[in-house]
Specification:
By secondary structure, the chain is mainly alpha-helical. Helices cover 55% and strands 11% of the residues.
Length: 181
Amino acid sequence: MVKNIYLAIFFLLSINIFPQKDSLNYSLELALRPSKSAFYSAVVPGLGQLYNKKYWKIPIVYGGLATSIYFYRKNNDEYHRYRDAYKRRLAGFSDDEFFGNNLNPLISNDGLIRAQNTYKRNKELSILITLGIYILNIIDANVDAHLKQYNLNENLSIKPLIEFDEIHSNSSFSLCLNFNL
């Protein structure tokens, strides 16, 4: 009976015993999934960079897309301006903005055709540049998520060396590869 009392007291007193706090700092950092990052960037440009926590790249993505879309719209407006003037001239009107005040036009029909072709080419080029920036956004998010998993330490390093030879007055460029085991 006394043994059971001692055992009960031991268990009641041991309830307040906790293990020591771990002295090592562990950070639970979840590995980024490159496919998820690329998918986010494909759905909304810049969202993959947000997922990778590279916030400074988001304005670059939107700046590039906005610039190329601006030039697309500008070239499209100019293309339609010259096209409408050319179509009015073919219909027999002489009241377009490129005709001028007298009977001689400021820009000939051939000039209007060349301007149309130039602005059409620039418009199509702007579409390709917009598509290229969009694809680069996806590739950047994917590669950045891959490289975040890469372990960088001091055991492997490459340093560029520039040495100046004072005797011959020339310089040499080389790479120094350090590998520590």
